[in-house]
Amino acid sequence: MSYFRIGKSLASAILVWGQAMSRDHFSSRDSTAFNSRPDFPEKSAGPARPISLRLLGQFDLSVAGRSVPLGLTSQRLLALLGINSGHLPRAQVAGMLWPDARGSRAAANLRSMLWRLQQGCDEAVEASFYDVRLSPMVTVDIQEAFDVAYRLIHQSADLGPDALQVALRCNLHQDIAPDIGDAEWLITERERFRQLRVHALEVLARNVLEAGWYGAAIEATLAAVRADPFRESAYRLLIKAHLAEGSQFEAHRHYQEYCQLLQTELGVTPSEDFLRILEEGRHGEPSEAAPEGCKEDPMAFVCPDG
Q: What's the rounded Cα separation, in Å, for the pair 190 and 182?
């Protein structure tokens, strides 16, 4: 009987020891798993390095001046965050990047993609269980363009020489990078930004034209024309800028170019205001009416003094 009690006690001791070891093992494993989640990787030691995200013209992520190669999905994530002020809910990010996938599958794709992104640059993105955001160290060119464009189109904004210089240095000439794809949300954002920058470029052109900066006015209006070749107001500003600096030939060339474009592509003529623009520039004041020939054939009107 004593042997039985000893055996029973020994078995109980072994069971308690095994349970304790199991708890320690799983606790250690769970802790390691949590700390090594794709969403919460170990940050690299050392001082923070400047990170630049370029979304206009072409995509580029650079850390301390060196470009970081990234996959297309990672580029789209950074573009999505960069366009939306650097911060979005996690579920929204997954849904926009994988719109055709089920919620659980999209969430799994996002976890995997975050892990891959952190292998390339563990300083660019910060993720939690609830949201995904760009690191405060990341500067985004499109956010600067948004700020400048909204300041330009806000009628109460102070657009003195310093503000105009800042606007001229800002990249309002390029659209969101075409090399990151044509997802539905990207198409929407491209059109939204295109409309914003065209309006901003026209405001900028008018202000620098009034300041006598004719070359800057021509550059801004040409950028607006490239963004929207059928935009009459942009062509009107372009012609006025050429007339203001005394370039009659260029003014007439762009006048005829726009008239021919509308006739060829749409079968219509420009507005009465546009048809009078050369006369206004020639005499320094609005004319009574455009010549009759312009109403029938926009190409028929050529300034005799040109």
A: 9
pLDDT in tens, 93-132: 999 999 988 889 999 999 999 998 888 888 899 998 899 9
53-139 sits in which CATH class? mainly alpha
Give residue limits of the domains in the chain: 53-139, 141-300
Burial class (CB in 10 A: 0-12, 13-18, 19+), 122: middle
Token digits of residue 124:
């660019």
26 contact partners, CB below 8 Å, separation of at least 6: none
* The model scores a pTM over 0.70: yes
- Kindly state the helix (H) or strand (E) to which residue 138 belongs, with its residue range: strand 138-140
Report CA-CA distances (Å) from 236 to 121, 143, 217, 287. 47, 29, 12, 16
The CATH number of the structural domain formed by 141-300 is: 1.25.40.10
